[in-house]
Amino acid sequence: MNKLTHVNKEGKANMVYVSEKSETIRTAEAYAEVCVSNELFEKIKNNELTKGDVLTTAKIAGIQGGKRTSELIPLCHNIFISKLNVELKLNAENSSVEIYSYAKTKGVTGIEMEALTAVSIAALTVYDMCKAVDKSIIIKEIKLLSKSGGKSGDYKR
User: Is residue 127 in a domain?
Assistant: First the structure.
């Protein structure tokens, strides 16, 4: 296990110095799942919610959220994002909305937080748009699926 990089010698929170790191192509994929009732699932599928198109709104919100990661996570670097995609898929078997993100950059630090933030904000947007119908919505399984590039190498769940 590597040491924590966001902690200084005194054990205090610290933004990592990255200027001396090598610039590489870095990618990350993340996932979240939003579980809803069968009734709400049908309303999402048929675009019958009064707030509008849940899936399109959540996709745009996820992209926006990913782009603003450094504003939301205190020690996260502001990085150039060359690609950020968010896809939402309906899973009828589980009555859920599955959310996937893919993020890419060429830089000196990773893009995992942007991918994770994108799916998290998209999931919260699904909740926000649907809460008037059903407040028992569960957001779960927010996780990194894969990352590539950088000193720590590749990771695949």
Answer: yes
Antiparallel, parallel or unpaired: β 24-35 and 138-148: antiparallel
Domain-located, residue 37: yes
Residue 93 within any structural domain of the chain: yes
Cβ burial, residue 104 (10 Å; 0-12/13-18/19+): buried
Question: Would residue 23 count as lying in a domain?
Answer: no
| Strand 155-156 relative to strand 83-91, pairing | unpaired
pTM: 0.91
Active site residue 128: yes
The span from the CA of 42 to the CA of 28, in Å, is 31
Number of structural domains (the chain) is 1
**What would the pLDDT profile of 58-83 be if each residue is shown by its tens digit?**
999 999 999 999 999 988 899 999 99
Contacts of 136 (CB under 8 A, 6+ apart): 37
Q: What pLDDT digit, counting tens, does each position of 87-141 carry?
A: 999 999 999 999 999 999 999 888 999 999 999 999 999 999 999 999 999 999 9
